[in-house]
Write a structure and sequence with these properties.
By secondary structure, this protein is an alpha+beta fold. It has a five-stranded mixed sheet with strand order 1-2-3-4-5. The protein starts with a strand and ends in a 16-residue tail after the last helix.
């Protein structure tokens, strides 16, 4: 298995949905239009491929000089625990540079994962949750 990582390629929506559904991440995968918009309006996407098979994806919004919000990190279940998610984050960090902080909101079942790969838990965040 040789994993290839690519920048700024937006895969077909069906491929994205397949990764999301397999990974366990909760996204509105029954709404293709919304998934398309999520990626269309993002300005940094890194993907992981095993041949022609999309196996991982990271999606972010950034200004490339101060902050970056990592809004999606998903790896197909059968490819998890192989360092792919960590590598996707490393590639995001390479692109945004040392001046930018990287921020994310963790799913409850991933709260133990992020500290293992270098994230610090933030106690100073606030949120207005989506209504739909």
């Amino acid at each position: 298995m040789q994993i290839i990582y690519k920048y700024d390629i937006i895969p077909e929506v069906e491929q994205i949905i397949e990764v999301f559904n397999s990974s366990g991440i909760k996204r509105p995968t029954n709404d293709k239009e919304r998934i398309n918009k999520m990626f269309f309006y993002s300005n940094l996407v890194v993907t992981a491929w095993d041949g022609e098979n999309l196996i991982g994806i990271a999606r972010a919004l950034t200004d490339y000089c101060y902050c970056c919000y990592l809004s999606d990190l998903a790896v197909k279940k059968e490819y998890q625990n192989k360092g792919i998610g960590k590598k996707l984050i490393e590639l995001i960090r390479e692109k945004i540079g040392e001046q930018s902080m990287l921020l994310l909101l963790s799913a409850p079942n991933a709260m133990e994962y992020y500290p293992k790969i270098g994230f610090e838990k933030a106690e100073n965040a606030f949120i207005i949750k989506r209504t739909k």
